[in-house]
Amino acid sequence: MFLLKVIDSFFKLKEKKYKDNNSEDKRGNKQKIINSKSLVKQGEIEANKQNFAKALTFFNEAIRMDPNFDCSYGDKALILDILGKYNESIILYSKALELNPNNPITWHNKGLTFLHLKELDKAIKCFDNAISNDEAYSKAWYNKGKCFEMQGNIEKAQFCLSTAKKLDPFLFTKIKMNNNKN
Length: 182
Description:
Layout: H1 2-17, H2 24-27, H3 30-48, H4 52-65, H5 70-82, H6 86-99, H7 104-116, H8 120-133, H9 138-151, H10 154-167, H11 171-181
Helix pairs in contact: 1-3, 3-4, 3-5, 4-5, 5-6, 5-7, 6-7, 7-8, 7-9, 8-9, 9-10
């Protein structure tokens, strides 16, 4: 369920705030874009069911059909992260960000992958990029704070965690509930 929420929020934010880099005005190929988005949605459904191999098949087909759709790369990267294929995941997040460098969710997810690798400075830079694209992104503030906490920088950690709590007073409860499910 958590994965679907992350992916669903990715699309809502993208559609709300960011112009699709693959607009039919640029390429005159509306059907190809619709099909690619449909494949990504199908992949997300499979990912939410934890059918990761099937999800990857949908994301790969979406990439083949429209190699300029950043969400295809970002979603595939998220699955690879879940599967522990962190280096492959980072490569795909980088490709997604090359196509759309203003996507805070992709920056955040890339930061989480660096966090898995214990590359805290790189994770912090990714969270900074997420925040620079969406200052109210409470999860980015939270995870940046956790990185500083892991580095022993309590003052910066406290600032980031306090900011996260101000932006989303229920964030810590949601995280605790999610951790209890796993």
